[in-house]
Amino acid sequence: MNPVNPESETGHDSGRPEHGTGRQEHDIRRATTVEEVLAAPELFDSTPYPEATRRFLAAPGHHMFLAYAPDAPPGIPVGFITGIEMLHPDKGVEMCLYELGVAEPYRRRGLATALIHTLLALSRDLDCYDMWVGVERDNDPALRAYRGTGAEEDGVCAVLVWELAG
């Protein structure tokens, strides 16, 4: 069942407006091939590496959904979301919303919201106890999107990084 459009027999939305709302449905599909991810490199911070993409898609607990728009070139995603299940002995499983991206011309159409709801629905189906995301405090569009789907701040945290490559 598709969490964005439960009536979809194909596992994704039709792209047609919802009856009586004038609102565009969203065509959101689970990413299954390296080729479909590599079809839209501009959605990512850097061009995805084919081998890393293959490993991500094959890894248990790693999830990616792609959004398509009826006015975009066929087969080219206009948005994506990734989530990673995190398991700890004293907590259970939680979902980390790892990254979300929507191409500039397709922003403010509800795609980010639909992608977040898709990952939330999967998290519920997997019995995760919560879903969380790290976001820069000055990233107002991301904060609006996350808060608009029910996320609440969980306090202040510092992010510390060990640079291991190059």
TrEMBL record:
Region (Disordered): 1-28
InterPro entries: Acyl_CoA_acyltransferase, GNAT_dom
UniProt xrefs under Pfam families: Acetyltransf_1
Skewed-composition ranges (Basic and acidic residues): 9-28
UniProt KW keywords: Transferase
Highest taxon of the lineage: Bacteria
Gene3D superfamilies the UniProt entry points to: 3.40.630.30
Domain N-acetyltransferase residues, every copy: 26-166
GO molecular function, one term: acyltransferase activity, transferring groups other than amino-acyl groups
Annotated protein name in UniProt: GNAT family N-acetyltransferase
Originating organism: Streptomyces triticagri
Lineage, top ranks: Bacteria, Bacillati, Actinomycetota, Actinomycetes, Kitasatosporales
